[in-house]
Amino acid sequence: MKVRQLEIENFRGISAGNVEFADNTLLVGGNNVGKSTVCEALDLVLGPERLNRRPVVDEHDFHRSLYVDEDKNSIPIVIRAILIELSDEALRRFGGHLRRWNDVDQTFVDELNDGADHSDDEGVVWALPVSFRARYDAAEDDFEADTYFEHPLPEPDDLDEERALSLGQGRDRFTRTHKRLCGFVYLRALRTGSRALGLQRGSLLDTVLRLSEEGSAEMWMETLRQMRDLDPSIGAIPDLELLLTQIRERAGGFVRLADGEDATAFFASDLTREHLREVVRLFVATGPSDHPVPFNRQGMGTVNLLVFALLTLIADLKEQQSVIFAMEEPEIALPPHTQRRVTRFVKREMGQAIVTSHSPYVIEQFEPNEIVMLSHDHASAVDGAPIDPAGIKLKSYRTQRRQFSEAILSRGVIVVEGETEASIIPVAAAVLELSDPVYVHPDLAGITVFTANGDGDVPRWAPIFRTLGKVPFGMVDKQDPPYTGDNGTALTSFEEFWESTVKGVEDLIVAQVPTAVLRRFLDSAVQLSDFPVHQATYDATVGDADLAGIALKVLKARKGDAYGYAALLIEHCQGRDELPEFLVIALERINEVLMPKLPATETAEDSASEVTEESE
């Protein structure tokens, strides 16, 4: 079973949203775009234990905390999910609630005028629409919530008033037993430890126990009996025995107690299974020590790997292909090689993996058509669909996968031809930021620098990033001959494109910075251990007229980001007027395109705050 589509109304930061899912889906977007909200929405619809948590929703789960309108009518939360690829058992159990779904057009066939004629078309499958609904109940002064089948819906004339006014408005309930057939498991990010390795309802350990069907009821009864019959009991400690005796003597003067020493006692819990679920903890001994301690005293990396081990158990118990598994930010406390392993495992072993991440090591495990870009507009509407891979060459994607993964998380991309250009842009932006209170650094603005494989490779990335919904910019040395053919056509996809007047970025920056900057640079560079003494000679007696030639020799001898000489030169610029004009023009134009227009009275601090909100 797989989730194909999710609609959200009035839930948290989302006023309205529609997200389409691939077979395996990576949800990406800036902070606060709605990734966690989408996962929480899935849990509300499909999580077997989610409705048992109290409260199911509260005021802040309603968009802008509005749960009644000006006329005191309830404003409900509605979350609808469409499930496809149902198991044979699900087809039998849910037969009366299924609809024919066109998985190509993402529409229900019965909504077409001639739908019956298309029920067996290619790509048309059975789908199960279900929903979560919540609202404020004024009569009870509380919130009510439940899950329902969305089809078939009763005719209004067939409903009595009570059912028509109910939360489900006559819909049949989608119960916890029904949800277990979906096999939905949600691994939250920051709550991984307590929710996964405790025994609370809905935790991963609880899921393993329930799926194993090996007498969990008897386990709880026997555990509680043994705790009750502890020998010696907790109260057998001498100091506690004295305290219990004093309690019996003092309380006996006011309350009629049972006869004997057993009238008062100490136990480790309330001796109920619910309390035991809350207090029982997994203990683990990790090498080189052999002393077991509670799992939450282990390092976060160890805790997350224990969680990973439980996931393999769940995959086995659920016969692998029946699990819909949602996971938030697996990169937290995991090294890169483990991030890759966890991601590959859930993609391979679960029926459907839905993952949120900011890590390139996770992102690079997904193909372009498995990546869903979430966008959040100013009206709090969220939209997301798998990337259309038609404009992306898989060879290009795979050879630049790591950089591509970073670019996916950005708002805009600056495509440059080499490492030297990539190294000087953030440094130039930092200098510009210090001298211009309205300028916003690309890191804060959500703009990434992408290094192509030479100047001939720059143009073809423009349409690719346009396809991804990014704003692409391009920057190259002087081209002789100029771009023609496909490359010339591709340039039109850049929002802005800058071509230098000289061949070589080293020539450009040496020619466009003041002599004072060149001297400060050489005074600093000559002290470095890898200064190219065989290519250039410099000391403080060198005249100004010779500085440009020496600096150019040094930069060409130490090209690239690994040496960092070009970035060091730009770092010695002390304001906008000392920066190369070519870089200033490009950076300020990028800022103008992507940054919101600010009122004249707004401060730089206000600007940074607004940019952060915009990027999120």
Structure in words:
The protein is of the alpha/beta class. Helix 20 packs across helix 22. Strands 1, 2, 3, 4, 5, 6, 7, 8, 9, 12, 13, 14 and 15 form a 13-stranded mixed β-sheet that branches. A 4-stranded parallel β-sheet has the order 17-16-18-19, with helices on both faces. A two-stranded antiparallel sheet has the order 10-11. It is globular and about 105 Å long. The protein starts with a strand and ends with a helix. Helices cover 37% and strands 17% of the residues. Among the domains are: 2-21 and 39-175, no CATH class; 391-609, no CATH class. The longest helix has 18 residues, at 300-317.
* Main sheet overview: 13 strands, mixed
Number of helices: 24
Which of globular, elongated, flat, extended, rod-shaped describes the shape? Answer: globular
Low-confidence stretches: 597-616
Structural class: alpha/beta
Q: Overall pLDDT, averaged?
A: 86
Distance between the termini: 32 Å
Number of strands: 19
- What is the strand content? 15-25%
Which percent bin holds the helix content? Answer: 25-40%
Rg over C-alpha atoms, rounded to the nearest angstrom? 32 Å
Quick tags:
single chain, alpha/beta, 13-stranded mixed sheet, globular, disordered C terminus
Task: Give a quick rundown of the structure.
It is built from 24 helices and 19 strands. By secondary structure, it is of the alpha/beta class.
